[in-house]
Design goal:
By secondary structure, this protein is an alpha+beta fold. The protein has 14 helices and 20 strands. Bound molecules: flavin-adenine dinucleotide (FAD). The site of flavin-adenine dinucleotide has 37 residues, from α1, α10, β15, β19 and α14.
């Protein structure tokens, strides 16, 4: 039986590996020259291997972690991921929230109650909201936005600014006034109201492709640099650019599915699917990787930054890329970003450097000193980094009306916003469904 997988992002590769585990040998078509899709390494002339975007995972990414461990049984998790407990802190130290080593969900409630930078009123308000959401089974009113949810639970301006809005942007990449409250709650439920280690923060300790997608691809029949242009389905086959297969898993983003799908059977289902694909809108993420002239450790591997757009202080998070060889590398992340590539690049980089230096300098100048000079930088703006996680979006299931075709990707009906774990779970599910029909 010949099976095609279109797209070698985390969804397509997860599907391919699951099929391989069951004795199948799928062919993976990928338009790029390397695997990983939106979570991949980029070879920079000056800095070596960097990532297309800094990725943060959490302990709740169980399917991804299982896959990674199965593919790299000989490698200790610590070599791949820097696992930190639930600990969020701003660069200038004005906000800090750290969970004690207590059973869940007490650890997250204690983190809120002990948070620095919040008033007694903020903390009690947050605690009340968390308890009330837990009692309601983490259900948000239908079609409500994160902003409406926070308002209905009377969250103060301060806690929204310091905690909820950064979390919303980091997880949904969509502004709180537009983003879907239910997707936000699904993330909170699975990280905070789950076994304690599910709220751990996991920062890749290698470049993204080395994490697992490169290892997976080495075990598969890969067709790189092949842009699939036509998928047609008849009773007996799926034709991928005129090559016959018995079945396929289409693991490319919605706008790409729309372009390649040329089916003639089951017109009603096709109209419905195309309508769903049309509803997706996209949001950008910008990542600025900085190579400093010498070692300069951040106080914590990831820090929240205070924004001030009037001064060009656009950075939202700064990460220390611990695995980078040589002097310190930092990655600054801007979610729901504009197209910063249009800006004066040098001024943009200078302003971000000023933002980091100034905010960390507010801690203990004698300990951290001024931020070292920037030797090299690379700004990558992924314009369609994620789909806009708005309320009321109907997302297709992996199983389609065509028995030979399955869908996979972070945009399918995973219950999550566009995240790595959603992509992996969708790929595994599509593969399991396909295997079940064989
Ligand atoms: C900058 C950035 C930061 C992010 N940060 C985080 C984070 O911190 N945590 C998190 O969980 N998630 C994060 N995400 C989201 C995460 O990267 C995605 O959810 C995930 O990578 C999606 O995987 P996928 O397999 O569904 O899709 P994709 O990665 O888009 O894979 C689709 C693949 O199909 C290929 N393709 C497309 N069209 C064709 C065609 N016609 N023929 C052949 N191949 C084709 C593409 O080249 C691509 O490789 C981030 C994303 C970006 C861009």
């Amino acid at each position: 039986m010949k099976i095609a997988i279109i797209g070698a992002g985390w969804a397509g590769l997860a599907a391919a590996i699951r099929l391989r585990e069951h004795g199948r040998a799928p062919t993976v078509f990928e338009s790029a020259a390397i695997p990983g899709g939106r979570a991949r390494s980029v070879d920079d002339v000056n800095m070596g291997l960097i990532d297309n975007g800094q990725h943060l995972m959490v302990g709740a990414y169980t399917a991804t972690l299982d896959l990674m461990n199965a593919l790299r049984p000989e490698t200790d998790e610590a070599a791949l991921l820097n696992r930190l407990g639930l600990h969020l802190e701003s660069a200038d130290e004005s906000f800090r929230m750290k969970a004690p080593n207590w059973p869940s969900p007490l650890h997250s409630l204690a983190a809120l109650l002990g948070a620095r930078g919040l008033t007694f009123h903020d903390r009690i308000g947050a605690l009340r909201m968390m308890i009330s959401l837990r009692l309601s089974g983490w259900r948000a009113p239908s079609l409500s936005t994160v902003e409406q949810l926070l308002k209905s639970h009377r969250q103060s301006e301060r806690i929204c600014r310091l905690l909820w809005i950064p979390l919303c942007l980091a997880t949904l990449n969509t502004s709180p006034e537009q983003s879907c409250a239910q997707l936000f709650l699904n993330v909170l439920r699975d990280t905070l109201d789950a076994p304690g280690h599910h709220s751990d923060l996991l920062i890749p300790n290698t470049d993204l492709t080395a994490l697992w997608s490169g290892v997976a691809a080495d075990q598969l029949d890969m067709r790189y640099r092949h842009i699939v242009r036509n998928i047609a389905i008849d009773e007996d086959h799926v034709m991928v650019d005129s090559e016959p297969f018995d079945a396929c898993i289409v693991a490319i983003p919605p706008y790409a599915v729309k372009r390649v799908l040329h089916v003639t059977s089951n017109r009603d289902a096709l109209t419905e699917l195309l309508h769903m694909l049309d509803q997706f809108d996209y949001r950008a993420i910008a990542t600025l990787t900085l190579q400093l002239s010498r070692t300069w450790h951040l106080p914590h591997p990831l820090l929240l930054l205070k924004e001030d757009h009037a001064r060009g202080h656009y950075g939202q998070w700064v990460f220390e890329r611990a695995h980078a060889k040589g002097p310190t590398q930092l990655a600054v992340v801007i979610s729901d970003a504009q197209d910063f590539l249009k800006h004066d690049r040098d001024q943009f980089v200078r302003s971000i450097a000023e933002q980091i230096g100034e905010q960390i300098g507010r801690r203990m100048p004698s300990r951290y000193g001024p931020m070292p000079e920037i030797m090299h930088h690379r700004l990558i703006v992924e314009k369609r980094a994620t789909f806009a996680a708005v309320p009321g979006l109907s997302r297709p299931r992996t199983k389609t009306a065509w028995p030979r075709m399955y869908l996979a990707g972070d945009w399918t009906d995973t219950g999550y916003p566009a995240v790595l774990e959603g992509a992996v779970r969708s790929g595994l599910q599509a593969a399991d469904e396909l295997l079940a029909t064989l």
